[in-house]
Write a structure and sequence with these properties.
With about 450 residues, the chain is of the alpha/beta class. It has 12 helices and 13 strands. β5, α9 and β6 form a beta-alpha-beta unit. α7 runs parallel beside α8. The longest helix has about 40 residues. The chain is globular and about 75 Å long.
């Protein structure tokens, strides 16, 4: 005789544990999504609900849009899982995590050839790092102007209109006039002359990018620096530079060690870099380092005692997990210069392979080939069969997320596709992506009456 099946409302705790997962209350009925439920549910039930919804997300490993790391070694993941509960702000309670952070700051400082190492801070990605660097630049400019007896109400910052949106946020939040150097057809980086035309005594800094988001190109940091040195000598101005190395800071030292872009240039006062991009750490960790203690205003720094010593802190955020710092230190310890060099060489080889094969298709014009940072951007030579937006949509049907976007103002008529090659993206996956791209083109070529999709809003990282 079969016993009567209980309604889920009649079940006790033991019944719930024995009930097949997808027959439990919460999975056979809708669950509240915008307010708390009246009762609790079993852990496995809550897990199943959330897990199933997340299946509708894209596959992070096939996301060719993001610069952010999507693969780490199991040992790194284990360390990070073990340190989720450590609050990075509690340096007295977690002194050894604090010391690991200090070691990382020194490693980054030395990697960028700082004459005075250890002056820096960890951050939640380059976005917070940019805010910290910008504040220091404004404070230093204000001090210089006050010393000259001049007004401090009209600071400006000079950068290309190809910058990441966080620079726009900094300018708005901290009341600094953004002076944008516009891109020109065929010229997708700022130039020394463009910089000189924009600066004046109220310029708190010039911000070249080492790894432009749109194309992956390095802006001509050394040439801009030398032009500014001459300008400062001629005018008596004291305009410094900050390098936004969010994407390229963990690439250039290993692939282009001879390139002078960092603290080897005297006017470079601060640098930001993303640990969660080519620093190879899951999001979100970033770093900002200064040339010397003189370049970081003391009144921006707070001091905390730990182990009887002094730990200066400079952050916008407060509580955050220490596991990203641990993940970064794992990579530094595990890889060293040789390991990072080997990985970056491999990524560059894959990116350049993709660029060569895409060029051979005959349909595309390459804007970048992955030989700076492992990023390539390419445009259709003509749109007689489709647009880059059509191709992006078609690739998405197969799981590939390849962004299509228009370039900055004045060159917004140019629409491109971009591929970011990251750790975990193999040559085999590259061949699969190329095959999917070829099939997408073939599909539209066989649709003579296809109407191209409308352009998307301007790309924003």
């Amino acid at each position: 005789m079969v016993s009567k099946i209980k309604n889920t409302e009649e079940m006790d705790d033991q019944d719930i544990l024995l009930t097949p997962v997808y027959a439990r209350l919460g999975l056979e009925n809708p669950v509240p999504k915008f307010e708390l439920a009246e009762q609790e549910m079993a852990p496995s039930t809550a897990y199943s609900i959330i897990h199933d919804e997340l299946m509708l997300d894209g596959n992070a490993r096939l996301n060719m849009a993001t610069f952010v790391t999507t693969w780490m070694e199991p040992e790194a993941e284990k360390l990070m899982a073990e340190t989720f509960d450590k609050n990075m702000i509690d340096k007295d309670e977690y002194p050894f995590t604090a010391m690991i952070e200090e070691r990382c700051i020194n490693i980054v400082s030395r990697l960028f050839n700082a004459p005075e190492t250890g002056v820096g801070a960890s951050a939640i990605g380059s976005s917070e790092a940019v805010m910290l660097a910008g504040m220091a630049l404004k404070w230093r400019w204000r001090d210089r102007m006050r010393a000259k007896g001049k007004a401090t109400d009209k600071p400006n910052i000079v950068m290309g209109n190809n910058v990441q949106v966080v620079w726009e946020k900094f300018a708005r939040y901290w009341e600094v006039e953004p002076r944008y150097i516009e891109m020109e057809p065929g010229q997708y980086t700022i130039t020394p002359q463009g910089v000189l035309d924009a600066v004046d005594e109220n310029t708190i800094a010039v911000v070249p990018i080492l790894g432009v988001t749109y194309t992956g190109a390095y802006e001509p940091v050394k040439e801009i620096h030398d032009a500014l040195v001459e300008h400062n000598a001629r005018t008596g101005h004291d305009i410094p530079m900050h390098i936004d190395a969010a994407s390229g800071g963990f690439v250039a030292p290993f692939l282009h060690p001879e390139l002078e872009w960092d603290f080897r240039l005297p006017l470079v006062k601060s640098i930001n870099v993303s640990g969660h991009k080519y620093g190879l750490v899951y999001p979100g960790v970033g770093w900002v380092v200064w040339r010397s203690r003189e370049d970081l205003p003391e009144d921006l720094v707070f001091h905390v005692n730990y182990l009887g010593g002094d730990m200066p802190t400079f952050t916008l955020n407060f509580s955050r997990p220490g596991n990203q710092i641990v993940g970064q230190y794992y990579n530094f310890l595990r890889l060293g210069k040789e390991g990072y060099t080997r990985i970056m060489q491999s990524l560059r080889a894959t990116a350049m392979y993709l660029a060569d094969e895409i060029e051979k298709m005959g349909r595309f014009e390459l804007l970048s080939r992955g030989d700076t940072i492992p990023v390539l951007a390419f445009a259709l030579k003509n749109s007689d069969c489709c647009s880059v937006f059509d191709l992006s949509d078609k690739l998405r049907e197969g799981g590939w997320q390849v962004p299509a976007y228009t370039m900055p103002p004045k060159v917004e008529d140019l629409a491109v596709l971009r591929i970011v090659v990251r750790e975990g993206f193999s040559r085999d996956l590259a061949d699969m992506l190329l095959d999917s791209l070829a099939k997408a083109i073939d599909y539209f070529e066989r649709q003579p009456h296809h109407k191209s999709g409308n352009p998307r809003p301007q790309f924003s990282h």
